[in-house]
Amino acid sequence: MQAFMENMWLEIVLIIVCFAVVLWGADRFTDGACGLARRLNVSELVIGLTVVSLGTSLPEFIVSFMSVLRGSGDMSVGNVMGSNIFNILVIIGASAIMRNIKVDGSLLYRDIPICLVASVLLLVFAMSGGMITRLEGLTLAIAFCGYLYVTYRIAVRDRKAEVPSESTKGENARAEMSVLRMLTLIVVGILALVVGGRVLVDNAASLAREIGFSESVIGMTILAGGTSLPELATSVMAARKGSYGLALGNVIGSNIFNIAFVIGFCTSVVPMAVTEITPIDWGMFVGSVVLTWLVGWTARKFSRLEGLLLVLCYLSYLTWLILR
To answer: pLDDT by residue (tens digit) across 2-20?
Structure first.
């Protein structure tokens, strides 16, 4: 009993320490990414949709790839689904609660609709025989490469010198950083996010098992939420600093990356069977994107009240998962 309690307290301490590491890494990563965006004269939204979203989605890729190699297609797809639902409802919601977030028109007209199409496409693939084939996975991966190319072309087309606004001292400091320092902050931030998030998830899952939660609940909640910690920390920090494009671009870009690249790449390697995910899970997966899209059209921003609404939707879904 004493050994059990000592182990539990050790896990709690590691969770707290790793949470602090994740927040520290998010702060470094945000500074580096924003500075890089200014130095390259591209918008923070484009950086959020590409560099930041790919970096913060590494945990989802690692977990899903290891799951599919072990023959657990449901866990791989479930991790992506749970992470995307968490990203949309909790991360955007928490960021909006922190500070009202302005929504760029390109997100409403291009990126969120692409995210919705990718979500529906994954649903169709999974429902067609309960199996995502190599050809379907390859289709998703190629579509993701096309999305990156289009985003790159838009960034090149719209590239122009940004006139410094009435920015804060922190923003000025980021703009004056050397390229080497920016890249160092980005790399160090990603390492802190990935390593801290991984250790945090492992200890949280272990603690949950000791308390008595089932493996399925752990997978759809702790694992999915834990692998989304880099996105959560990065977007909340970005919102706090007024980098709205980075905050939202990180979430939407991560969701597109999770579906098109993570599932696409994993399935291209090993076709995965998907049989245990319920219609309610799929409904939340697609419906959360639709809800966020509709909310985003209201005054072209996410208000604190709307952010609270998104978080409450997730808490309701979480309660259903646990009771199920």
So the answer is: 666 667 778 778 777 876 7
